[in-house]
Amino acid sequence: MNDHTTDIHALAGAYALDALDAEESDAFLRHLERCEACRREVAEFHATTARLAGATAKEPPAALKQRTLDAVDGVRQLPPRLNTPPTTTGLGERLRRKALSLGLAASLVAATSFAGLAVWQHQEALEARQQTQQAQQNLDTLSGVLAAPDARTIHGKATNGALTTVVTSTRQNKAVFTATGLPAPAPGRTYQLWLQHDGTMRPAGFVHQDGTVLVDGDPAGATALGLTLEPSEGSPQPTTAPLLLMNMPA
Asked: How far apart are CA 224 and CA 244, in angstroms?
């Protein structure tokens, strides 16, 4: 076989992406045995594609599979493939054509991939910044209540053994709930907080694990705080016996 040096060097990217047919792949493998530059280039292509795949990998939405199945009936099928006589184009010519077409395709894919990666990274950075800002705001609010000059504290113990604390600030009209030793809820369940106003329990947020959370709702005028085990999406009113019902600090 004649060495088409320029053409076969250009197939390093196609080989790394498994885009060569069997005959072309065999020819390129023989070339790799004596070409150190192509071996390095193939290794770099493998590493780059792995990094791109890892960087852009994302969990698909749960509804994607069903939407795909629903769309199948509307997809036009390809016409049947007809048997055509094989052409007599030599391997060298095929390699030359494939190198040119794959070179163009690789350029387009690279441009699209890096553009998509840049957009994805920007979105991820924006979301991370927003989450950080939200977390900082929550921390500032919690700290403000705990350190308030008019802070009032009361301790309790839930029926599942968790130790709890409620801190309120009348001036800030906010309350903070802390739980320690809270057992992990069963799958599909979560802990929900309640504020009692005039004998009516109103949703006041969730507690997913040990720690401190800001109580949702208006603690002003609330006479008690409750804790129940509810479905993970929450309930408009308690559906189970309270694990905790403690008077609000006076």
From this structure: 10
Residue tagged 């009113």 (tokens): 237
* Cβ burial, residue 95 (10 Å; 0-12/13-18/19+): buried
Give the predicted TM-score (pTM) of the model: 0.49
Distances (CA, A) of 200 to 37, 193, 216, 237: 76, 13, 15, 9
- pLDDT, tens only, 55-73: 545 566 666 666 666 665 6
Work out whether the CA dihedral 209, 210, 211, 215 comes out positive or negative: positive
Contact 219, 195 (CB under 8 A): yes
Q: Collapsing DSSP states into helix, strand and coil, what is residue 201?
A: strand
Residue with the two structure tokens 């308690």:
238
Which phi and psi angles does 109 have, rounded to 5°? -65, -45
Domain ranges for the chain, please list them. Answer: 1-53+91-147, 152-247
* 177: pLDDT strictly greater than 80: yes
- Identify whether the C-beta of residue 210 lies closer than 8 Å to the C-beta of residue 198: no
Query: What interhelical angle do 36-56 and 91-146 show, nearest 10?
Result: 40
Q: Are 156 and 246 in contact (CB under 8 A)?
A: yes
Phi, psi at 245, each rounded to 5° = -145, 105
H helix intervals, the chain: 5-9, 12-16, 22-32, 36-56, 64-71, 91-146
Distance CA 128, CA 146 (A): 27
